[in-house]
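User: My instructor asked us to take a sequence, write out its structure as tokens, and then describe one feature of it. I'm not sure where to start. Here is the sequence I was given:
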Amino acid sequence: MKHLTIIKLLVLSFVFISSTSNLYAIKDPIKYGKVSMDELKMTTYEKDTTATAVYLCDYGVSKIQYEQAVKDFKYTYTRIYRIKILKDEGLDYANLEFGFNKNRYDVSMVKGCTYNLENGKISKTKINSKDRILEKTSDDYFTYKLALANVKPGSVIEFKYQLSSNIPWNLDPWYFQKDIPVLHSEFRAYLPEYFVYKKNGKGYLPFKVNEHTYSTGNMGSRTYTVDNYRFVVSDAPAFKKEPYTTTSKNYKSAIEFEIAGTKDGHGVYHDKTGNWDKINTSLMEHSYFGSQLKGGGFLKEVVEEINSTQSSDEEKMLAAFNYIKTNMKWNEYYGKFVTTSLRAAFKEKKGNVADINLMLVVLLNKLGLNTDPVILSTRNNGLLSLFSPSQSKFNYVIASCKLNDKRFFLDATEKNCPCDLLPERCINDKGRVISSSGSYFVDIKTNSISRTATIAKMNLSEDGIVSGNLSLSLNGFAAFEYREALQDQSEDELLETMDEAYKTLNVESAEFKNLKAPEKNLTSSMDVELVEELDITNNLIYFNPFIVSKIESNPFTLEERKYPVDYTYPTDKTYLLELIIPEGYTLESKPAPTRINLPEKSGQYLYNVAAAGNKIMITSRFKINKRQFLFDEYASLKEFYNLIVAKNAEMIVLKKM
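Assistant: Let's start with the prediction itself. The structure tokens for your sequence are:
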């Protein structure tokens, strides 16, 4: 009991109001099917008139209860929520979507209904079974989708669903904040004394209600104590997501319950969190993880081929990476466990993330290169808790190859990714090395910089037509994104794609080099013409020199941002324009040269205009030198963009002599 008391004291991150009253006696904040006339007559949300929809109520209950019929505890999670649709842009909120692990949960109930006010009366449109979709998203996870009908501005929609599990301790986080305002969000948890949880609140919204009470439950002839928790947040503002953000669930206000341990009938505590050493051992002994690393005989011929054709360790690493990437097709499923076996995946030439990247680990080790798997949580899955050991938080695995003192992180799932570049989904702070010699955290980051160099050599005719050549050179993420967009396209399709990408230009021809060679810089050369002719008035020509690569607007618009700005990777964008002006014209005025620096050399913008004879040269360079900016750096970053936008809007004025 003393050990349990210490745990409870340490994990509380906020103060609970405690009593011995029964939380069951408190009235539910919402009853399914009981929509009011006031809710249907509502036309706007006064606290945020821009809201396209608003949660009238979002109510969740997690309950662990002893089932006499099966003589065991069972977990149920029930959620009811009601949304008012205010504008056409809010119609998407009439779609229910939730994910679940098929090995842990059963979907025991789903309901949905649309309510409209017609001729002064409430009409109901219930869901049809054909509107329900069960979609497999990975080996163990499914997404349940449900679309309501007859939804329009003014409608009230409502959903109720329930998940049940025979594994009683899996409680998902409850998010009080959504992408639209929430009038009332309430979460309750009923937890028998045999289940001990760590409780963690995150976000900045205050609780209107934060209660911890007690009740009793029956297990045959035995009575046990139930911890009852109730949390309420009222009038939660919409979470405004800006660009350069990881998953919003890292920052939305939420409450989390994570199992710490269990007590048996004699009060003996059993730790459930374990420690990283136990997790490492468990994974290394797992038949779908560590056991797969011990084989690899099916790769014998591949090993012999690479050893006979490559000499240095780095050449062997690159050859192994390219072999797996070329010969294995990713089925787009995440996971840290193989589907069946590496041998089976090799035979089928396809598999999930673990099939591909654990196979790469095996191949590299067969080549004598020190390589271990690294498990991680993808950006959409959320950040890891470094102080709460839990295997369930990890949903992905990559390879870590160490050559001398340099570590290479490798992911062979993406055909267009070079060896030194991880897909963006993987770059999410830290990962955990799993190996027979131990386990430890590593920073997951890319050594690659996203570089773009744009060179425009253009001619301005006397009648205002601007035409010439536009060349690009890209590497890092910039090259990866281009290759993803352009792969498998014919020459005509490539030309059409580039013409659509550059709205201000007519692209007359386009040539690419290294489009299918990810390890090399991607280059292109295009013959282009400006769509609009320049206006010539009173012998003056006004010309904005950014025919492409113009920063027209500030991506940061919030007064205050309470979460970091995450660029994923450093960025370096250079734009050069060489403009030949018509005979008889001279440069009348030009933008002043500019150097804008962010604090601590974290970013820089350079801009200059020079003239020599009938040639005008414009140089612009935009650099972001670090991946993440904290919320207290937001104001300076926002002003950095404001100054760049203003500078990019300035015109060059040419005058006829």
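For the description part of your assignment, you could build on this observation: The first strand starts at residue 17 and ends at 18. Try explaining in your own words what that tells you about the chain.
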